[in-house]
Amino acid sequence: MLFNNAMTLFVTRPVRPTRLLRLACLALGLGLWSLSAQAEALHARYGVTLLGLPLGKASLDGEVAGQTYKISINARLTGIASLVSSSKGAAVASGAFLRGLIVPSAYANTSANATQTRTVRVAMSGGSVKGIDISPPIDPSPERVPLTDAHTRNIVDPLSAMIMPVPGSEPIMGPAACNRTIPVYDGFTRFDVTLTYIGQRQVKAKGYAGPVSVCAVRYTPIAGHRNRKPVQFMAQNKDIEVWLAPVGANRVLVPFRISMATMIGHLNIEADEFSAAAKAAP
Question: What is the count of structural domains for the chain?
Fold first, then answer.
């Protein structure tokens, strides 16, 4: 899939698309919303490269309408990578805004390769998990850091976390776009993603040309993971960045580009199409 939680990319889990999908979490945030009355739809298409070589494609579609949102993502391997693996993945999430906060209500992802398909479904209420279904289940392992009920409270799912609101009193391009810590829960692991503002850049893609806020990213594993070398590598990794671009008039940012060092080379996920369109409010 397109985004992984980045720390376990290509290494700790067999279904490669799901890892790519959850990388997006690195760019994600939980903050205050200042919504316009205009409903808007987002469409973005990303290219994924590893060591400069094309690896896959992904598309992201979302909608913010009043006090609700929906977001979905689909990804697949392409080119030479598709000759050795048929991996693909998809995820959807939805929720609402309550007292200025993102409140996810549902999250699901499905990832598949030639030998296995796994689906994760998470139901949430008030920022806490109310139900989980993972099929087939994750194999239990004594190596995993215990995950407790406390780890499933005050969290945001990886896909909802891709919606990055900026407080109405702050410039949408600047430190407020980045400076935050995101508590992410993906169904079996809990981790924090800390973003720090380091500057701005100008970008150009189909549908968008303008500034992006550049954030340095750090990953902190909390629970559910296994303390193996890939996790340790990502926890110490200082070579992770996310570029955040604005979406229409709703003071919302989403990832335009994610770049990071991995144990097998440098990974880039970058938009070649990025647009927001006004929709009639329901």
Answer: 1
